[in-house]
# Entry
Amino acid sequence: MKYVNADIIFPEELLNEIQKYINGGLVYVPKSKGLRKKWGENSGSREVLNLRNDEIRQRFFGGDTIDQLSDRFCLSSDTIKKIVYSKK
# Structure
């Protein structure tokens, strides 16, 4: 994230109002809710986990046991159960 000097981007009236609350400090301005990305969307981690979870579900409904899946994917039995029994 790149820092931008406030007096370059804000109108003087707005800058004066902001300075009433924080003078000389750093402020983070988050993106609008509609523009935010969910966890893992930028890096591709979300897609990798979705593919893994789909494979776990396919193997489970193909006959693999919870313990077999737990060993194969290095996840706890509880985590495998959450993946398998989730409504997806």
Remarks:
- The mean pLDDT is 90.
- The helical segments are 6-9, 12-21, 45-61, 66-73, 77-85.
- The radius of gyration is 23 Å.
- Residues 39 and 46 are 7 Å apart (CA to CA).
